[in-house]
Specification:
Elements lengths: L2 E3 L6 E3 L1 E4 L10 H13 L4 E3 L8 H10 L8 E6 L14 H15 L4 E6 L8 H13 L3 E6 L4 H14 L3 E4 L14 H8 L2 E4 L30 H5 L5 H8 L2 H7 L3 H10 L4 E6 L4 H8 L8 H11 L8 H5 L7
Helix pairs in contact: 1-2, 1-11, 2-3, 3-4, 4-5, 5-6
Keywords: NADP, Oxidoreductase
Family: Belongs to the shaker potassium channel beta subunit family.
Organism: Saccharopolyspora thermophila
């Protein structure tokens, strides 16, 4: 396992992080989820990402139980706040009330006194940014989080949040966007802004919900047990990539992966790690053996010619529009 600094902060994290969105608490049973977390630890992963909304809090609970007994100082535990965690009007968003209540709930479920990184899961258009950042500052000063991050914020929103964080003297060090060889919307605006500000990317879905593994083939039904057959939410998220033109292009990457001595999944994870603004790629798993395969992408260097050939193959199906980031934050709370 290779390690990188999170942005220009002093925090060092594993360049492959383990995330339990969709799977833990919903898609797989807890014993399997625990086995996946143990496999991640065995593979050298020290960085774990979750959120209070995942499986209605159960994902945090599963992670907390699985990591119990591990040396806390040797782990980096990340979680997030924004999406609804209850039926009330104040059970969502980035108001001071919701942030202060949510951090305590997350710490209880994770069975820890602090998280290393507390992230705004989306931008809240209904709350003054000053209120949000002041609440985050109080979380940091109370010792409940060491660093602050954001997820799916636009470059403009990141700049505004970072400026307030500097005024409040708290470390806003990370951005967690979707990023893969198929989804490159952060390259035009978010990455340049973050490079300037010293903010690192912790990217999710580097294998595009499994599509970049090549297991979904043109004209064929999804494999049994794959995310595309999951009725607990997985099928919804992967459906946008299950177009014939996308699947055909992904299959054309097989010779490139073979030349590099990699599986398609390893090629996809290695691809995002070639970007120096990426501090970590988040992988998930529904089976422990998937961990070892993806971790083999750590430390891989892809040559420039191979990267150009990947670009040429995928160019017709790549999403690059930076406006897509803004679409991920609802104008009103849900």
């Amino acid at each position: 396992m290779e390690f990188r600094h999170l942005g220009r902060s002093g925090l060092v994290i594993s360049e492959i992080a383990y995330g339990n969105w969709i799977t833990h608490g919903s898609q797989v049973e807890e014993d399997t989820a625990t086995a996946c977390i143990r496999a991640a630890l065995d593979a050298g992963i020290t960085t774990f990402d979750t959120a209070d909304v995942y499986a209605e809090g159960r994902a945090e609970e599963v992670l907390g139980r699985a990591l119990r007994g591990e040396r806390r100082e040797g782990l980096e535990i990340f979680t997030k706040v924004y999406f609804p965690t209850g039926p009330g009007r104040n059970d969502s968003g980035l108001s001071r009330k919701h942030i202060m209540e949510s951090i305590d709930g997350s710490l209880r479920r994770l069975q820890t006194d602090y998280v290393d990184l507390y992230q705004a899961h989306r931008f809240d258009h209904s709350t003054p940014l000053e209120e949000t950042m002041e609440a985050f500052a109080d979380v940091v000063r109370a010792g409940k989080a060491h660093y602050i991050g954001v997820s799916e914020w636009t470059a403009e929103q990141i700049r505004a949040g970072h400026a307030l964080a500097r005024q409040l003297r708290i470390p806003l060090v990370s951005s967690q966007p979707q990023y893969s060889a198929l989804w490159r919307v952060i390259e035009a605006e978010v990455i340049p802004a973050c490079e300037e500000l010293g903010i690192g990317q912790i990217v999710w879905s580097p294998i595009a919900q499994g599509v970049l593994t090549g297991k979904y083939r043109p004209g064929a039904a999804p494999p049994p047990g794959s995310r595309a057959t999951d009725d607990n939410g997985g099928a919804t998220f992967v459906s946008r990539w299950l177009r014939e033109d996308v699947l055909e292009r992904v299959q054309q990457l097989r010779p490139l992966a073979q030349e590099a001595g990699l599986s398609l999944a390893q090629l996809a994870v290695a691809w995002v790690l070639q970007n120096q603004n990426v501090s970590a790629a988040i992988i998930g798993a529904s089976r422990p053996e998937q961990i070892a395969e993806n971790v083999a992408a750590s430390g891989v260097k892809l040559d420039a010619q191979l990267l150009r050939r990947m670009d040429e193959i995928l160019a017709p199906v790549v999403e690059r529009d930076p406006a897509r980031t803004a679409e991920s934050s609802p104008k009103a709370r849900r």
